[in-house]
Amino acid sequence: MKILEQLFSILGDGRFHSGERLSQQLQVSRSSVWNGIEKLKAMGLEIYAVKGQGYKLAEPVEPLSKERILQSMTPQAKLHLPHMDVHWSLDSTNRYLMELAKYGAQSGHACLAEIQTAGRGRRGRAWISPFGGNIYLSQLWRFPAGPAMLGGLSLATAVAVARALNQAGVQGFALKWPNDIVSAGKKLAGILLEISGEAMGPATVVCGIGINVLLKTELARDIDQPWTDLYHLMGAVPSRNRLVGLLLSELINMYIEFEAKGLEPFLAEWQRLDAYYGKPVELAGNDNLIRGIARGVDSHGALKMEVGGALRTFYSGELSLRPV
Ligand code: BTN
User: pTM of the full predicted structure?
Assistant: First the structure.
């Protein structure tokens, strides 16, 4: 482990650690410790330095740990997790797994990073992925059927994420079609499914989930939409390892059920969490804007909208509330 990773993992408990003790633990000089602390600060971690006491994180942030994640997973889900790679830094956990998939990575292979330098969002956007306690998780899943059978998968994934958040004690969030997790209109988490494969199957899906856990305003200045994080919603930083364990368990259950039954078992829950049902909305396509009233989703996961008195369905686009 490199110095920064070691320092982060020691400071993660939120207690004071003296420079002297840190230099002994890491077997490096005091100035290397100081350098490491400065680098972590530059990466966005808020660290207090108090004379006579040492260094302390402003908010305890649990460093990602494979062992702790596994402890929070159901035994059944663990059977479907052949590998889990926990990285300090990656360009994009989705890109990484898409690449591994080409060389035969197994279904269920999961990957996490503390920071992403080129995180990907939906519709060609970037996913701003600073260091300091968010969740950047991807999982590969191979479906024997072709990509055409995976129409509702993004909605089912949102339901799996919602279930995991509920189990972690998070409340006060809703879903925005097709698969954003929002709270009071602000984005809490995003899902990006990247699918490859032949029309007749099998299909390979990389499911990427980004959850804002503790996002510093200065580091989030490039985000081009209103956002929130779990810290603001819960008043504290939840255990990231437990949340990731719950997420992986719910995702794995969902893939298995979706493969057997499609979107149907997830539809009622999705509709119950629908943030925009009955509200005036607009749907932005590549070069058009359609206004109407949101009317939920159909059995394939397409958006239903009442437009000029007629009910229409849409398969893509960016939904937003219409200012009235
Ligand atoms: C969105 O735009 O709403 C989707 C965001 C998805 C972000 C996650 S973070 C983990 C995974 N790796 C990526 O590069 N993107 C996804």
Answer: 0.94
